[in-house]
Amino acid sequence: MEIHLQLYSILREKLPSDAKGSTVMQLDEGATLADLINELDIKLKVVISVNGDHEPDKLRQLRDGDHVKIFSSVSGG
Amino acid sequence: MSHGYHGKILHVDLTNGKFRVEEPGEAFYRKYMGGSALAMHYILKEMPRDAEPLGPDNILVLALSVLTGAAISGQSRMTAAAKSPLTGAIGDSQGGGFFPAELKFAGFDAIVIKGRSEKPVYLWINDGHYELRDASHLWGLITGEAEATIKEELGDDKVEVLQIGPAGEKGVRFAGILSMSNRANGRTGMGAVMGAKNLKAVAVRGKIRPSVADKVGLRKLAKWGATNLKDSDIAGLAKYGTNETTGANQTSGTLPSYNYNSGVFDDWEPIDGTTMYDTVLRGAAEGKQDRLGRDTCYACTVRCKRVVEITEGPYQVDPHYGGPEYETTSTFGNYCNIGDLPAICKANEICNKYGMDTITCGATISWAFEAFNEGKLTIDDTDGLDLTWGNAESMVKLTEKIAKREGFGDLLAEGSERAARKIGRGTEAFLITCKGQEAPAHMPRVKRSLAIIYATNPFGADHQSHEHDPAIEDDFEYYTERMAVLGFTEAQEPRVLSDEKIRFTVASQHLYSAMDSLNLCQFVYGPAWQLYGPEDIVALVRAVTGWEDVSIEELQRIGERRVNMMRAFNAREGLDRKDDVLPQKLFKPLKGGASDGWKLDRTEVDSALDKYYEFCGWDVKTGNPTRAKLEELDLDWVVDQLGI
ipTM value of the model? Predict the structure, then answer.
């Protein structure tokens, strides 16, 4: 299935620089957010939205055509 | 032999122009470490009760710590503390850059400033020598101009200048003290205190570096940080600034808009840190922003400071004045429903030119916006400015009017709480102040421990006084080792003020309080996501000072000591639990997005406050430190002051 992905801040560097954090990813059917994070090799804590809504559950299963945004974020300050 | 510090405090009485150098011994520095705790020692000991904040009896302390000037990231910071003209309680703020390290190299650990000069003066400290110089020709100059003039007349462009701008001279109640014309001891109005004393600036230069006890150990710690920065949680903050967090906060419903009535702002992306990096940082057009659009503090490899340059359009910005952080893009941006990044950068520039706290300034403006949109203020009140939500042009014009104390700006220069009291018409319902200081862009209805800290913090609503909830909630799994050092081993439920969460609030408040006494940068050091953890802080203190038996418990105790000293000062000035109040709107539901409907519950908050005072060892009825607690913290002399 295809996922529309937008990465922000330092996470953009997981993709080529001219992509500006934007790409379409192919994932297996039934893949979860946790699978996506593993695929991108993201080790730090992140905040994720799926189709415009906050999704704190990394076990959420993705569907074909989902729009996922991933933000790196620190608290406070 | 002392390491890390000089053992010299410079006292100056501006009324008679006299100086005195005090040389406290090692025990003094071990008890306080410096910064905010050291400042509180002098404020409690030497300021008379009921001093007028803008009068000669107020005492302004500029304090470094035993670590300032050491060759490692995140230590070149200074505390400015005095009685606050904004809140009437203790005032306290920290700022960074190169001035703090240079003051240490100029030969002193702190400056205690009393009285009031008859004419404008500036203090010049150079390799242990000190004098007051005429500043009449500097009075009225914006920061960049004053800085350049001082450097020229002292014949050295490496002089570091700490100063107030015209806003501090005119007594804007939230005027700040700035160095480099873009690093601010921003909050609680310390700039107005300095202006009331007719002290325009402090200029420093020197080569007297204190020794370091364990140079090898310090170098090892410093190298570890520099190497691990790119894989750390702050790598994003370093490159994209604190407002890398804008999109994340929008997503989780904690991005304040409509003056704190909502936690989401749909036009967030144009003012997010990633957009800022791509568009307005100096060098962005040529792809050179990483080198030209970022700046740093003395010895710091993080390089998190923004440098904005805009040369076209209605909001042109001079890079000498830096660039906005998350709080600034929030208060001038999303709080007012403004998604115009150049306009926000312009407001930031005005605040840095004239010397004002961007948080209180923007949040006072957003109070005015809400009052206008609710029909309580009209065009006749606002000098013809249309404050319809989202009007960036009006926001920028109003910022300038406040800085110059002109027209409607003169009222707003008093802060939103005094402005609301003067206007009446029910506008007090729109306030987001605690003890008269406006809330920053971290929302208690989402991160509940903020409700406790905003209410009880001695210097008003403040977001940098403890570790926020995510570290002990959803993010806990990432920080188990560091949190265990502080004694926390279990994640807590979001939005529930459990006993364990309140215990964490107190423990992290003490750690942050210790860090404000050590004057450490809270992005570089802390209990969770920061570059260095609690054990590293202990290692750093040991390496610099040679106090090999320093422990995390001792540092926590110093943090607790400082909070208690502040609370005792406030009690002496007549404050108690009745002043630990949250804005009424926090008990109403947020509108829209992930936090739709979320609100605080009065019974829950009151009960949480009871628990907080109990964990602090304070009297639950008054919220004030008990005799037993003060004696436990070696503050017996404070007991006498309070007559308890």
Answer: 0.96
Tens digits of per-residue pLDDT, B157-178?
999 999 999 999 999 999 999 9
**Cα separation, B347 vs B362, whole angstroms:** 9
Domains and CATH numbers, chain A: 2-72 (3.10.20.30)
Q: What is the pLDDT of residues B249-280, one digit of tens each?
A: 999 999 999 999 999 999 999 999 999 999 99
Classify domain B449-581+601-642 by CATH number. 1.10.599.10
Sequential DSSP letters for B182-197: TEEE-GGGHHHHHHHT
Is the fold of B241-438 the same as that of B449-581+601-642?
A: no
Whole-structure pTM value: 0.98
The domain ranges of chain B are: 9-205, 241-438, 449-581+601-642
**Among B276, B256, B239, which residue's Cα sits nearest to residue B327?**
B256
Decide if pLDDT at B186 tops 60: yes
The residue type at B106 = A
* Helix (H/G/I), strand (E/B), else coil: B61: strand
Instruction: Give domain B9-205's CATH architecture.
Output: 4-Layer Sandwich (3.60)
Residue pair B144/B158 in contact (Cβ under 8 Å)? The answer is no
Pairwise CB contact (< 8 Å): A54 & B528: no
Nearest chain A residue to B524, by CA: A77
B479, closest residue in chain A (CA to CA): A45
Q: Mean pLDDT across the stretch B599-608?
A: 98
